[in-house]
Write a structure and sequence with these properties.
By secondary structure, the protein is an alpha+beta fold. The protein is built from nine helices and 20 strands. α2 crosses α9, α3 packs across α4 and α3 crosses α9. 28% of the residues lie in helices and 26% in strands. The protein folds into two domains: 160 residues, FAD/NAD(P)-binding domain; 149 residues, D-Amino Acid Oxidase, subunit A, domain 2 (D-Amino Acid Oxidase, Chain A, domain 2, 2-Layer Sandwich). Strands 4, 5, 6, 13, 14, 15, 16, 17 and 18 form a nine-stranded mixed β-sheet that branches. The chain has a six-stranded mixed β-sheet with strand order 8-2-1-12-20-19, sandwiched between helices. The protein has a three-stranded antiparallel β-sheet with strand order 9-10-11.
């Protein structure tokens, strides 16, 4: 069960009086990245305010699960994911709650051999090939398939609701219910935030606002090359839930009529969420260019389930719609931009990287230097030639 977190306005003058000489930092956005950054900042002694206009985790972090995987086309990102996995493990111990399932991650398709080689060289993550029998045993939901397959034995499904709940609870005193209209740099190395109900100044502002990050950053002098689109994940019932935890699935094979499929079980393994790799375009003003696009993607997802996942009831149970923010160098691209007292993060498929990204954002805000790996010029997440 997810605990409801009350977000109450906090008078800025009162907070400043208690802050003393501590660095005052605002985090805009209480999705998984914003909460991770706030946790890391507070752990380093900063006085933190987290602004969120809706429920924590209700934007691009929405849904019951995400895939944790190490396999990427960029060896540096695979190693960064490995670092993040260790921090997820630490969070689980700290919160006393399992945040990533022990069900592992399965991938099928032509890219398996490259992924296995990359993991062996870059991430030191336990992974192995699966033959047809091993795949059928490990992934009982899947129809018969005899092509390349692998198991990422330290991957699994991130229990997103549990993670957001645990972080929100730990940071409840720092959450402020308000929407941020603008961020701008002031003199003397400070930044101003204007919200729906007030004005405040901070030593640093960290922007983790999903689709709202780029517009706010632009007003503060940072130009983020974010491409905006929208996608849908569809939830289905597991026909015969078993005692063993289900793995996540990435299907790049095309054997069942689609490529770029990603899917993950809910915490109770009774539901399974499936999404296509495709998205539908969003105009610069935030409007879906094709209003029926998400409906068509959802219908294709259900058809894929009928063909590829007979272990699921193909009648949709739920839909999660959210915006996608990608960078020009790849679907897994991520970067941190910083100028003076303002820092912003952007990218896609970031949930699994949240603990390590939070630490990097905290380091940037407190030292003024973006870790080299996460500078835009490094193009982290791009396929390496």
């Amino acid at each position: 069960m997810v605990t409801a977190i009350a977000i109450v306005p906090v008078d800025a003058g009162v907070r400043r009086a208690y802050a003393g000489a501590m660095t005052r930092i605002a985090v805009v956005g209480a999705g998984i990245i914003g909460l991770s950054a706030a946790k890391a900042l507070r752990g380093r002694g900063a006085d933190v305010v987290v602004y969120e206009s809706g429920a924590p985790g209700g934007g691009q972090s929405a849904g019951e699960s995400r895939i944790f995987r190490h396999a990427h086309d960029d060896a540096r990102l695979a190693a960064f994911a490995r670092r993040s996995r260790a921090k997820w493990r630490g969070w689980s111990e700290e919160f006393g709650r399992r945040l990533i399932s022990p069900g592992d991650a399965v991938a099928i398709g032509a890219g398996v051999e490259d992924k296995l080689a990359l993991l062996e060289q870059a991430a030191d993550a336990p992974a192995a090939r699966l033959d047809a029998d091993g795949l059928a045993d490990r992934m009982p939901l899947l129809a018969a398939y005899s092509g390349p397959a692998m198991l990422d034995a330290d991957g699994g499904a991130i229990h997103t609701l549990v993670a957001i709940d645990a972080l929100s609870d730990a940071l409840s005193a720092d959450l402020v219910a308000d929407h941020v209209l603008s961020v701008r740099q002031l003199g003397a190395g400070t930044a101003e935030i204007r919200t729906g109900t007030g004005i405040d100044t901070f030593d640093h502002v960290v922007l983790c606002a999903g689709r709202g990050t780029a517009p706010l950053a632009r007003g503060a002098g940072l130009d983020l090359p974010v491409e905006l689109s929208a996608h849908v994940r569809v939830g289905f019932a597991v026909r015969n839930p078993a005692d063993a935890p289900l793995p996540t699935l990435q299907d790049g094979s095309g054997a069942f009529g689609e490529t770029g499929i990603y899917a993950a079980p809910a915490e109770d393994d009774h539901r399974y969420s499936v999404g296509l790799g495709e998205t539908t375009p969003v105009s610069p003003d935030g409007r879906l260019e094709d209003p029926a696009g998400l409906e068509r993607l959802a219908a294709r997802t259900a058809e894929y389930v009928r063909r590829a996942l007979p272990g699921l009831d193909p009648e949709p149970l739920s839909h999660v719609h959210c915006f996608v923010t990608t960078l020009p160098w790849g679907d897994d691209g991520v970067g941190i931009w910083s100028a003076g007292p303002v820092t912003a993060v952007a990218g896609h498929n970031l949930f699994k990287l949240a603990p390590a990204l939070g630490e990097a954002l905290a380091e940037t805000a407190l030292t003024g230097a973006v870790p080299e790996l996460l500078r835009p010029a490094s193009r982290l997440g791009a396929a390496r030639q």
